[in-house]
Amino acid sequence: MKRRSDIRKLISKAREVWRQSETYQAAKKKCRDRMRSGWFFCECCFEPTEAIKIDHKIPIGKEPQTLEDFGWWLPKLFCPITNLQGLRNDCHKRKTKEDKLKMKESKDEKTKKEML
Ligand SMILES: [Zn+2]
Q1: Which residues, chain by chain, have CB under 5 Å from ion ligand 1?
Q2: The dihedral of CA 7, 9, 12, 13: what is its sign?
Q3: Rounded distance from Cα 88 to ligand 1 centre (Å)
Q4: Burial class (CB in 10 A: 0-12, 13-18, 19+), 16
Q5: Distance 47 CA to ligand 1 centre (A)
Q6: What are the backbone angles phi and psi of residue 104, rounded to the nearest 5°?
Q7: What are the residue ranges spanned by the domains of the chain?
Q8: Where would you tag: which of 40, 46, 60, 88 has the fewest CB atoms within 10 A of its CB?
Q9: 20 CA to middle of ligand 1, Å?
Q10: What is the end-to-end Cα distance of the chain in Å, rounded?
């Protein structure tokens, strides 16, 4: 089973199971607005929001490309609650962008070192 579509299906199923996990639900509960049902507070700017995204503070990193990759990727996805935070859409987008940039920078650094 090496087809890319199978890997993609496994990723989306893993994320589905993660969203149903106790840790994920607890992370979501943590930012709930007790005064208004269905509302949350962003843990980054404390703005109220109806759509909260649960973010990995230390990013999970690249999605698995092979079955073997799931070995390190799954424990990162199912991380302890201390690595989870609730962010509203805008903050989540900004953080994802910053994470990607950081990942690219560290990759560039690695490439530079390998070239020396
Ligand atoms: Zn925010």
Answers
A1: 42, 44-45, 91
A2: negative
A3: 6
A4: exposed
A5: 6
A6: -65, -45
A7: 4-115
A8: 46
A9: 23
A10: 38
Residue 33 CA to ligand 1 center (angstroms) comes to 14
Question: What are the backbone dihedrals phi and psi of residue 12, each rounded to the nearest 5 degrees, phi first?
Answer: -70, -35
pLDDT score, position 112:
83
Inter-residue contact 56 to 83 (CB < 8 Å): yes
- Sequence-distant (6+) residues with CB within 8 A of 6 are none
Ligand 1: distance of its center to the CA of 52 in Å? 10
